[in-house]
Amino acid sequence: MPPALPVILALLTILLGGCRAGPARADDAAASPAATPSPVEGGTEPAAAAVNQAAGPERGAGPARDDAPAASSDVPSTRIEPFPGVVVLPEAPAVELQAWVCLEYGWLEQIACAPGTREHESLVVPRAKPSQIHAALLMAGFEPGSPGRWSYENEEYSFTPPTGTALDVLVRYTDESDGLIEEPIRSWIRDHLGRHEFPREPWIFAGSAFAPNPDWMDEEGEHYVADVTGSIIGLVTFGDEVVGFSRVLADQAAVQPPEWEVDTERIPPVGTPVTMILKPFEP
């Protein structure tokens, strides 16, 4: 059996509802990040409600798919659309995700998150669920590995980088003045002192993880962890991201002080429809 096939089967089981995550308890909802107003309806949606559905405009989950920037004319002819807001281009290979901008200023811990989770620290919100994005990356031929992690033992810190296919992450959107723009998403990030740009280093298809369903879920079985936490593309290392930065950045300021923030001069306004492009990293 090919190495990726068990993962594909497990993901399909979850996506078809065989082992899904149930609703969160009230005390869990209180402990989760605050819900964020959507750019369409201005309402809020708790994280527990967002993780059990593919995000869509009918739930205030950003612009409709027809608003997303069109692909250029030189893309490969084979296009697979396995989920709403997801296009797989196996010949490229690449995966395109419909998303929208959710933040214009502030510290960053995520690049992309699921609706109703970490918009206060992310650049964009894709329409698709994390497990759907994982499945699409597998369809494009990318290999998952494992998320990065860090630990503190015997008065020493240990950092283990993520493993998996090295990816580049780009964004395509339409600007009123400049027309269609395609650029690396790192161009929307700056260090808080304005001394240097975000490094040109790969993002890694880490693949999040599967975990047994806790008691508060409505079914026995297991769940795809990022579907609950919302971590799609991580900047700091939470250990649950579908795609993570190749360098481990601790998620606690006492270990590594915050460094990266939104480049307000480069990022388009909140609510702007964008197409995220995940493709192999070229050194």
Q: How would the global form be characterised?
A: globular
Q: Report the biggest beta sheet as strand number plus sense, adding barrel if it closes.
A: 10 strands, mixed
Structural class: alpha+beta
| Unreliable stretches covering 5 or more consecutive residues | 16-61
What oligomeric state do these chains adopt? single chain
**Distance N terminus to C terminus?**
32 Å
Strand-residue fraction? 25-35%
Mean of pLDDT: 79
Quick one: how many beta strands?
18
Order of helices and strands: HHHEEEEHEEEEEEEEEEHEEEE
Percent of residues in helices comes to: 10-25%
* C-alpha Rg (nearest Å): 18 Å
Number of helices: 5
Topology (SSEs and partners):
Blueprint: H1 5-15, H2 26-31, H3 47-50, E1 86-89, E2 94-101, E3 110-113, E4 124-126, H4 130-139, E5 144-146, E6 149-153, E7 156-160, E8 163-164, E9 166-175, E10 179-184, E11 189-191, E12 203-205, E13 210-212, E14 222-224, H5 225-229, E15 231-234, E16 243-245, E17 260-262, E18 273-280
Parallel strand pairs: 15-16
Antiparallel strand pairs: 1-2, 2-4, 2-18, 3-15, 5-8, 6-7, 9-10, 9-12, 9-18, 11-17, 12-16, 13-14
Helix pairs in contact: 1-4
Which tags fit this structure?
about 280 residues, alpha+beta, two-stranded antiparallel sheet, about 15% helix, globular
Structural features, described:
With 283 residues, the protein is of the alpha+beta class. The protein is built from five helices and 18 strands. Strands 1, 2, 3, 4, 9, 10, 12, 15, 16 and 18 form a ten-stranded mixed sheet that branches. A two-stranded antiparallel sheet has the order 5-8. Strands 6-7 form a two-stranded antiparallel sheet. A hairpin with a 4-residue loop joins strand 1 and strand 2 (94-101). The two termini are 32 Å apart.
